[in-house]
Automatic annotation (TrEMBL):
The name this protein goes by in its record: Putative Co/Zn/Cd efflux system membrane fusion protein
Annotated GO CC locations: efflux pump complex
Similarity-based family: Belongs to the membrane fusion protein (MFP) (TC 8.A.1) family.
Pfam families per the UniProt record, alphabetical: BSH_CzcB (PF25973)
InterPro entries: BSH_CzcB-like, RND_pump_MFP
Organism: Liberibacter crescens (strain BT-1)
Molecular function as annotated in GO: efflux transmembrane transporter activity
Residues of the CzcB-like barrel-sandwich hybrid domain: 74-208
Coiled coil: 153-184
Keywords: Coiled coil
Gene3D superfamilies hit by this protein: 2.40.30.170, 2.40.420.20, 2.40.50.100, Helix hairpin bin (1.10.287.470)
SUPFAM superfamilies (UniProt xref): HlyD-like secretion proteins
Organismal lineage: Bacteria, Pseudomonadati, Pseudomonadota, Alphaproteobacteria, Hyphomicrobiales
Amino acid sequence: MLNLSQFIDHKKILIKLLVYIFIASSFGCDNKEQNIKKDDYLVYVQKVKSESYSQKISLTGEIRARVQSQLSFSVTGRIIERLVDIGSHVNVGDVLARLNSVQQVSEVASAEAGVKASEAQLLKESLLFKRQQQLLVNGSITRSEYDQSEAQFESAKSNNKIAIANLEEARKNVSDTVLRAINNGLITARNAEVGEVVQPAQSIFTLAHDGPRDVVFQLQESLIGTYRYRVNEKVQISLIENPQLKVDGYIREVSPIVEIKTGGVRIKVAIDKFPFYVKLGDPVIVTVNLSPIKVIKIPWKAIDYVNEKPAVWIVDPKTRAISLMPIVVSSYDNNDVLVSGNLKEGQLVVVEGVQFLQSGQVVSFTEKKS
């Protein structure tokens, strides 16, 4: 017969055993219910199908003159007068700036004196040579004396030609102290100020010639492979201030190299009939079509992530098991993700319900109707 303490111990053991049985049965039921939920989970799928896709991109450009000239003096000097500024419209022959011409004027005076001296010497030697010719005929001088007189005459003629050439150059140097417009156009840059000493060929102004205009834009290096730019290919231009106003242009020139400063290729678009209200330097939008590529479109909500990279859930139609597959995203459209790698034709991609999926899970699926 059990005493009281033994009865209590047996009772405790029996209670613990019942608790263990209850917990184990509850855990088994939960797993069973969870498996049932997994087996019965319905997802919507889309069959992978590639299609040709051509994306439009918009790049910023700038209105520029088709012809631009760097205007400079051809002599050294100090600027004493500047008659135009950025934005000034000039006509061919207009005076733009002047250098101090004191030295050049002094050189002209010296050259003129040299011409007069050479002319006097030439006249003297000419008269002497004619007399020597007569004396040679009469036999009054030797052949050697005649030859010496002829040489002096030829030397005087040569010196006179040199003096005249020096005078012409001196006068040209004076005219070169005045900078004139070489064409009708607009001053778009000023690179020197009054009082500055400038050197020959140093740019003083940039002149944008009147006439046809171009749009210049840079195509980034990352887009070079996807945009097959061709000369005479049409593009669309619109003003940033008023995108509704659009005009067509065509590619006129493509730089053969990638520019180091910008990291892109410079492209010039010709616009022969541009609206009158467009000004040099106005920013514009250039719309171009990228070369068509084969892509697979899937909805945004089909995207999941693995190791912080985009992926999609793939359903095996035979086993109904799912697996997470990384993908290569080409770009993003309004409602779709454009996939360019890893997916194959005919695969089934889960497009709804991805937030509740686990790798290896068995699901029921039905194809999503578009």
